Amino acid sequence: MRIHILGGRLIDPASGLDQRADLYIDNGRIAAIANAPAGFAADETLDARGLVVAPGLVDLSVSLREPGYSRKGTIASETLAAVAGGVTSLCCPPETNPVLDTPAVAELILDRARESARTKVFPIGALSKELAGEQLAELVTLRDAGCVAFGNGLVEFSDTRSLRRALEYAATFDLCVVLHSQDRDLAVGGLAHEGATASFLGLAGIPESAETVALARQLLLVEEAGVRAHFSQLSSARGAQMIAEAQARGLPVTADVAMYQLILTDEALRDFSSLYHVQPPLRTQADRDGLREAVKSGVISAIASHHQPHEADAKQAPFGETEPGISSVDILLPLAMTLVRDGLLDLPTLLARLSCGPAAALRLPVGQLAVGAPADLLLFDPEASTLAGENWFSKGRNCPFIGQQLPGLVHYTLLDGRIGYRAHHGSHR
Amino acid sequence: MSPTDAKRPLQLNDNGQLRHFLSLDGLPRELLDEILDTADSFLEVGARAVKKVPLLRGKTVCNVFFENSTRTRTTFELAAQRLSADVITLNVSTSSTSKGETLFDTLRNLEAMAADMFVVRHAESGAAHFIAEHVCPDVAVINGGDGRHAHPTQGMLDMLTIRRHKGSFENLSVAIVGDILHSRVARSDMLALKTLGCPDIRVIGPQTLLPAGLEQYGVRVFHDMQEGLAGVDVIIMLRLQRERMQSGLLPSQGEFYRLYGLTSQRLALASPTAIVMHPGPINRGVEIESAVADGSHSVILNQVTYGIAIRMAVLSMAMSGQATQRQLNQDVEEQN
Fold it and tell me: Quick check: A86 and A333 in contact, CB under 8 A?
C-alpha cells in the first residue's frame, strides 16, 4: 500500500521539522518527505492541504480494562477511542484483573491487541505481585513478555525498604519504573484536594504533602539506586517544582501529567459531580497553572490522557462511593489543542509533549516522522473544532467535557501506513 | 448525568421557592427568614392541645436513615405527623444495603411506593444532592445530615434558637467550639450566620480539628478558648467523637476538656446574657460541664423543641415548592 499525503503542514517535533510538504508512505513506513521516491505510484492520495501532519500521539496511560473489567472497556473499544483522539501508541497500566504481574497476562493483552487493537499497545507491568507493594514481580520475565516499564499505580509499597529494593532490582536490568507519588497515610480516605472546596463540601482531603512527601522519598531512592524513573500523573505545582530541581541537579527523571489536570481544578467539585472524582485529585488553580508552566518549560515532557473508562453505575452514587477516573482518550487531541488556543504552547511544542516526549520517557520506538520510521501519523485540522461526545468510541462516557466545543479536528490516524481512523464528519470549520 | 442548571439552583423551583432542602449554600436571606418565620408560627401549634395542622394531609413522608439517629429522626417524624402526613421511617443501615442494594435502587423503590418526600441521612457528603439530582428529582428531598457536609435543618433550628433568644443577628458575636473539621452542623451554622448578617463568627479549636479554607465562611479562628469566648453572645458547642483520639487528632478527652471544655469559669468570660447551645447528644465532662449544660444559660432543650418547628416549616415549604414546580412543568407541557 502506497499513500501520498499531499500538501500538509508536516510537524515533527523530534527533528524540528515544520514545513509544508508532501509525505510518501510505502510498505508501512515513511518512504520520503517532500520529494517522491523514484517511480512512486500512490494507491491512495490523502489531501492534507490545510491539515497538520504529525506523528501519531503517544499516550502513556490508557486503561484498556482488559482483562477483568470489560464492562468498563475492551481493548477493541478503547483503542478505537484512542485512534479517534489521534493516538497511535499507548501504554496500558497494570491495574487489570488479574493484575498484569505474570507473563500470561502480558501475553493475553498483547494477543488480544494483535487481534483487535487499533493502536500499538505497550503494557506497563506491575512492579510488585498483585500490586500489593510487598513482593517484587518477575520484572525480567515480564520485560521479555513485552512490558516496557513497571509501576505500582497509586498503591505504595508497604515499607520504604521494599521500595528501595524494587528500584535497585529494576536498576540492575536497566528497567524503567513508572512512579505515582501519593503517600498512603496522608491520602488515606481522601476524596479531594485538601483545601477550601473539600472543606466546604465536607469531603475528606488529600493534602498537597501527600504528593510531595512521597515524591521526595522516591526521588532520593531513585537517585541512590540509579534507576530510570518516570513520574506519572503529577497533580501539584510543588511536585512539578521538585521534578525540576531533580532534573537541574542532573537526575535523568521524566514526568507526565493528565491532560484534564491542565484544565480542571478542584472548584469543579462544587456540585458534587462524580465526573470530577479522580485520583490523584484535582487541585487548585495555582497547581494547575504550575503544571501548565512545567509542561511549557519541558520539565513535564509528556501529556497523557490517563483515560479511565467506567460503566454508568460506577459513577451513580454519592461522590465518595463512586469510582475515580475520567474517560477522555476520544478527545485527547482537541483537549490538548486548548493549550495552543490559550496561548500556552505553540503547536510544535504541544505535539512534542504528545509524541516524542512520552516516547523518549519510556524509550518507545515511536513518535517521529523520520524517513524509514513506521508511518504512524495523525492528520488534523487545527482550525476546525470537535464537539466532544458527538462521536464516542470508548465504552466509558464518564467525561465532563462531553458537550463542549473544542479546538482541532482529527481527520485521519494512520498506523503502520494503514488508515486506522478516518473521520466521518461534516466540516466544522 | 447533567450538571446543575446554574440559573436555577438544584434546591429551588422556577419561582425561587424551596423544592428540596439540601444545603444552606446559595439560599438567599429572605428564604432563611421565611423558614424562621414559618417555624415561629408552628411553635404555637406545638403549644396547643391538638398539635396538628392539615398542611400535608394525604402526603407520604419517608424518613430514610442510612446512619443511626434518634433525635433527628424522631423530630422529623413528629414534624411530619403534626403536618398530618403519613410517615414511614426506614433504617436502611440495617436492611437493604447489607443485602447489596445500592442507594440508587433503594430510593427508586421507595419512590415507586409513591412517597412525596424523602428525609435522608447518609454518611457520605453529597448524598442528598445525589438523590435530588440523579435519583428522584420530582420528590422533595430533605437533607437530614450528609457526611461532614451539611445538616441544614439543624443549622436553621440553631438560627431560630438564636433569633428567639437574642432577637436578631446584627450585633451578635457567636462562637462555635470544638471539632469543626468533622461537623456538618458547624458548616451549616457558619453559612446560616453569614447569610443572616451575623458580624462576628468565631470558631475555636486546635488546628487538627479545623478544616482548611475557613476564611471562605468569613469567620475568625481562635486556638485559645479564653480569648475566643471573650464577650460572645452565643456559644455553640460541638460533640466530640471518641474516634478523634484514636486517629491522632487529639491526645485525650481529658486534655481536650482542659483546653476546650465549656466550664462555668470559661462561660463567665462570655457576655453575662450569653446562651449555650449544643446539637446533642452532649458528652458531659468531655466538651461541656454538667453545670453548664443544665444551667441557666443553656438553651439545649429549647433547641430540640425548635427543631420540630423548623422541620415542619421546611417540610411544608418544600412540599409546596415541589407542587408548584410540577404545575409549572405541566403548564409548559400544555403550551407546547
Answer: yes
